[in-house]
């Protein structure tokens, strides 16, 4: 078991996934009262800042596949938190009146989630870790873009 422990301790894939699950649990406690997941809240924050954004742009902004974005949009539309408007074949997504009403509460819940993990990890470590993960994501995205299918 010792060899497995050492391997897992140094495995970025394992550790980032484990961290993600812990952060999700923290986030779920903050968003429970709003009946929205942290991932859906992230999408709503993008909508608040970019009303009329396309699903393709949402996919790029959130680094999620188009099918995941479609699932998120369907779930949020069922909760009446967004509106879809179409122009020809293109769709544009807007926060609904109900969604805009929840904007302050979503922002506060998101901020509280961040403050909670900052309190647990310490501000320097949490902010540094976030910066390192952001850089790693950008670097890996650049590397993996060579494998993406070109239209």
**CA(first)-CA(last) distance:** 47 Å
The major beta sheet can be summarized as: 2 strands, antiparallel
Helical content class: over 70%
Number of helices: 7
What shape does the CA trace take?
globular
The overall pLDDT average reads 93
Please report the total strand number as a whole number. Answer: 2
The class by helix and strand makeup works out as mainly alpha
β-strand amount: 5-15%
Radius of gyration: 18 Å
The parts where pLDDT drops under 50 for at least 5 residues are none
The largest sheet has its strands arranged as 1-2
Q: In sequence order, what are the helices and strands, one letter per element? A: HHHHHEEHH
Provide a concise account of the structure shown.
The chain has 151 residues and is mostly helical.
Structure notes:
- This protein is mainly alpha-helical.
- It has 7 helices and 2 strands.
- A two-stranded antiparallel sheet has the order 1-2.
- Helix 2 packs across helix 6, helix 3 packs across helix 6 (97-121) and helix 6 crosses helix 7 (123-144).
- The protein is globular and about 55 Å long.
What is the element layout, followed by pairings?
Layout: H1 2-9, H2 12-31, H3 38-49, H4 55-62, H5 66-78, E1 82-87, E2 90-95, H6 97-121, H7 123-144
Antiparallel strand pairs: 1-2
Name a few traits of the molecule.
single chain, 151 residues, mainly alpha, 72% helix, globular
């Amino acid at each position: 078991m010792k060899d497995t422990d050492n391997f897992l301790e140094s495995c970025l894939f394992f550790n980032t996934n484990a961290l993600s699950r812990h952060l999700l649990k923290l986030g779920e406690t903050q968003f429970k009262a709003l009946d929205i997941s942290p991932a859906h809240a992230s999408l709503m924050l993008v909508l608040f800042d970019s009303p009329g954004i396309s699903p393709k742009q949402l996919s790029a902004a959130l680094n999620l596949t188009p099918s995941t974005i479609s699932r998120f949009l369907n779930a949020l539309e069922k909760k009446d938190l967004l509106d879809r408007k179409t122009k020809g074949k293109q769709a544009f997504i807007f926060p609904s009146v109900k969604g805009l009403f929840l904007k302050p509460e979503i922002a506060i819940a998101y901020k509280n989630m961040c403050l909670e993990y900052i309190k647990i990890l310490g501000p320097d470590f949490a902010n540094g870790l976030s910066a390192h993960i952001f850089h790693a994501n950008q670097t890996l995205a650049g590397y993996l873009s060579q494998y993406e299918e070109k239209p």
